[in-house]
Amino acid sequence: MLSQPSTTTTTTTTTSTSIITSKMKKAELVFIPSPRVSHLMSTVEMAKLLLQKDARMSITILIMKFPNDTVLESYTQKLFAATDPGSRLRLINLPGQDELKPIKSETFFFDFIDSQAMLVRNILSNMMESSDSQLAGIVIDMFCTSFIDVANELGLNSYIFFTSGAACLSLFLHLVSLFFEHNQDLTQYKNSDVELPVPCFSIPVPAKVLPYVFVEDASKSKMFLGYFKKFRETNGIMVNTFSELESYAIQALSTDENTPKIYPVGPILNLNENNSPKNESEELILDWLDKQSESSVVFLCFGSMGTFDECQVKEIATALENSGQRFLWSLRKPPPKDKMEFPEAYDDPQEVLPDGFIERTKEVGKVIGWAPQMAVLSHPAVGGFVSHCGWNSTLESVWCGVPMATWPMFAEQQLNAFQLVKDLGIAEAIRIDYRRDFKVENPVDFVPSEDIESGILRLMGNNGKNEMKQKVTELKNKSRMALQEGGSSYTAQSLFIEDVINSIA
């Protein structure tokens, strides 16, 4: 039997309104996020909220990490640094890939997660035998559905914490139905101009914004949809959204008799980022923003995996310079070919920028590496966000009341972009269906500077005093109200807790 890895704890607080006695049931949940910093961060914040709401709960988070993921490593080090042996939140590091037999395949991400199944089973078994609280179940990430079988074997309930939105979840389940129940070949939609009726959208969805992995080829489609098919075996799904943002999609999910119970619990964000100490480069970024006028800066950032080849970088630079717009640009270089590494900052960004760009734009712009995104978006100088449309970034932008311009790249980001522009009306489109591979080896798309410039000028037009800005401001207020006592997400969180507690025999 594998030995349990070393553990530590982080501090959580219990609200003063919690009324607990020693006779009340106490329940423990085990959260298992996928090895991506955005997924882990959302999971940690979700766990903290549940613990703050009810002292009957305790939570353990199992952390998986890829080697060379410096962003995830830095985040986990900060988590482990804040320790409290008396806490009800415990963190367990699972072995990194460098401690396991190497796995090389196109499905490395899922193979790595699946390889942890025996270790996860042993940890859960040990907890069932020794825990002071009753183990009430596991809460798994959308990509960790192989652990549902482990839970079933041990007689535990399983729940999903879906870190994307309700429309995305509903679309995934709709495609599962088309593929497995209606025997539909989804590859027919590859590069198709057809528009599809989808229950979670009030308007038809272009096939070009479907996640590419579902339409690329039949074998990949079957594999990925097989993971999402298992959602229906769970006892419930928490979704990182709020009813006021995605009411149509939430209604579609809630009335689907084949879908487990839905809990819209968001927005789940790391709101403590603004209060955490800043390093020197982050301080320089915020000092520069302090010198800019209100809503005057467009912020460009494309997520932890977002990079471009040199030709596309030059087009972005040309667009920014021609627009005359003040800008803060997070620019990072692609990882080396054939290596499992992550994007990093350029030692000298001038090696990929047009000659003289930095000098010519020094009065209006700043090129940086990684940015403290929440701190930047919440700064009053930022008036627009050119985004890859990852769901965490989308929720952060809404929370801060900053309208977006869409430039999706991977996964479900094209779908998010379509939803933001066409369905919700809170973003301008630079592109909706842009797509690229992770390593920037085979560019499949290219956006000319004229299109980028036009999108930025539309985003920043009228000094932010337009209908789109008003919609985002309204959603900003509603996102906060949703988490307050009596709000829609507060109520959904409470309902989830009660359902978990009541499930204990």
CATH homologous superfamily label of the largest domain: Glycogen Phosphorylase B
Strand order of the largest sheet: 1-4-3-2-5-6-9-10
Regions with little confidence, pLDDT below 50 for 5+ residues: 1-22, 99-104
Extended strand count: 18
**Average pLDDT for all residues:** 87
Looking at the overall shape, the CATH architecture of the largest domain is 3-Layer(aba) Sandwich
Instruction: Assess the beta-strand content as a share of residues.
Output: 15-25%
Helix content: 25-40%
- Profile the largest sheet: 8 strands, mixed
User: What is the CA–CA distance across the termini?
Assistant: 28 Å
CATH topology of the largest domain: Rossmann fold
Which characteristics define this entry?
39% helix; Rossmann fold; 505 residues; 18 strands; disordered N terminus
